[in-house]
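TICKET: design request
STATUS: open
ATTACHED STRUCTURE:
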């Protein structure tokens, strides 16, 4: 009744109402998925979605140091899609795990680096839904000898994941994928139930709907009228692929930028083009949809320097936003540098940064020595007896 009343008014109200009714679905319930109206011509849309994320995530102003004076920066808090489930991966998992449950899978097998946010999010989400998780983690060594500062491994272990260490340089197609398949066969033989294999970062043609839907959410938050540019970190390419598809299918009102923290622009354009292809979206090329910002990997994927730690610390101590060492810290650095050095790369000066999460990466100990230096020389006082002389 309420829905009919609203829909008789305007297109916006209809969209809002449909959106709201989807958002009010109970947590963990699997529902039939209907793609946004503007995505109805996509060849293959997932049939199911399981509700995991706390959506919509908020948008607010971000008083970040070092921006050109005329730039107005806002932040979309996809680091707040949930606590243990925080980050961009949860949006993808709503579709990947919805599909897995509808196929009768009782376990999931995924892969990533030793500190993978995607693996941690998968481990937590799987356990919440009653599924077992198996993680293939790239590591320097074939075992773990130290259980201090576990970072992302801590939630994965607490949620009961079974962990397999694989060589650090393992390639997905040639080494990891066959291992996933082998493990899936073993699990199926032992339990009689199928296991769902999830690629690196959950970036496939099902997971991509996480950020196609995020685009719909952003439309409802007036992103297309309030902003000129959107910036996001890019690791396996799934998030930017979803945003690019959403932006393209709704008239390309925004300029999208993805800061790479690992591969180069050719790799990511290939991935986005592959998604466009698999979803049957013709007439568009990744190269025209996304500006891939290269050059901010620093020492390499997952590697950080003292300067990187200084930068993360400065962001947190001046704005209260925690960025992670592997993705968001490097992406924010890239965004600030490019806004200063090559402003012509941006469509305008109203910029939205999507914070993709990753906070557990801060707990792997690499930043500890920086904090030790700062706090041993000030900011920490003994007040066991008299009031300390120094206040600030
Ligand atoms: C915190 C964080 N931000 C950004 C990304 C990049 O997202 P995508 O893999 O969709 O490119 C990832 C994962 O790779 C991540 O864990």
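STATUS: resolved
RESOLUTION: sequence designed for all positions
ATTACHED SEQUENCE:
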């Amino acid at each position: 009744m309420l829905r009919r009343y609203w829909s008789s008014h305007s297109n916006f109200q209809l969209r809002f109402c449909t959106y709201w009714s989807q958002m009010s679905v109970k947590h963990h319930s699997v529902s039939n998925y209907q793609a946004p109206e503007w995505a109805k011509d996509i060849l293959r849309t997932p049939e199911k979605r399981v509700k995991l994320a706390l959506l919509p995530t908020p948008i607010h102003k971000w008083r970040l140091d070092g921006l050109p004076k005329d730039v107005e920066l806002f932040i979309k808090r996809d680091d707040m899609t949930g606590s243990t489930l925080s980050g961009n991966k949860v949006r993808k998992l709503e579709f990947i795990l919805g599909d897995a449950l509808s196929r009768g899978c009782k376990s999931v097998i995924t892969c990533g680096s030793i500190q993978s946010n995607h693996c941690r999010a998968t481990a937590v989400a799987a356990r919440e839904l009653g599924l077992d998780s198996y993680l293939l983690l790239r590591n320097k060594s074939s075992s773990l000898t130290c259980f201090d500062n576990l970072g992302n491994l801590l939630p994965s272990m607490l949620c009961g994941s079974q962990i397999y260490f694989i060589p650090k340089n393992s390639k997905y197609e040639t080494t990891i994928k066959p291992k996933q398949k082998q493990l899936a066969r073993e699990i199926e033989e032992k339990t009689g139930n199928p296991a769902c294999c999830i690629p690196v970062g959950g970036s496939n043609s099902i997971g991509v709907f996480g950020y196609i839907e995020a685009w719909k959410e952003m439309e409802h938050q007036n992103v297309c009228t309030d902003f000129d540019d959107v910036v996001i970190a890019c690791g396996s390419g799934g998030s930017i692929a979803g945003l690019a598809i959403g932006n393209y299918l709704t008239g390309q009102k925004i300029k999208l930028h993805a800061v790479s923290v690992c591969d180069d622009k050719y790799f990511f354009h290939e991935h986005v083009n592959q998604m466009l292809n698999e979803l049957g979206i013709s007439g568009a090329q990744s190269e025209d949809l996304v500006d891939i910002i290269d050059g901010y990997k620093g020492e390499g994927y997952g590697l950080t320097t003292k300067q990187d730690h200084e930068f993360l610390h400065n962001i947190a101590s001046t704005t209260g936003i925690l960025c992670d060492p592997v993705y968001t810290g490097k992406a924010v650095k890239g965004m600030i540098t490019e806004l200063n050095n090559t402003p012509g790369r941006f469509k305008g000066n109203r910029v939205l940064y999507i914070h993709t999460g990753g906070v557990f990466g801060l707990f792997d100990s690499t930043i500890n020595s920086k904090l030790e230096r700062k706090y041993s020389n000030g900011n920490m006082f003994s007040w066991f007896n008299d009031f300390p002389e120094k206040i600030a």
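CLOSING REMARK: The radius of gyration is 22 Å. Residues 87-88, 117-118, 201, 203, 233-240, 324, 327-328, 356-358 surround pyridoxal-5'-phosphate (CB under 6 Å).
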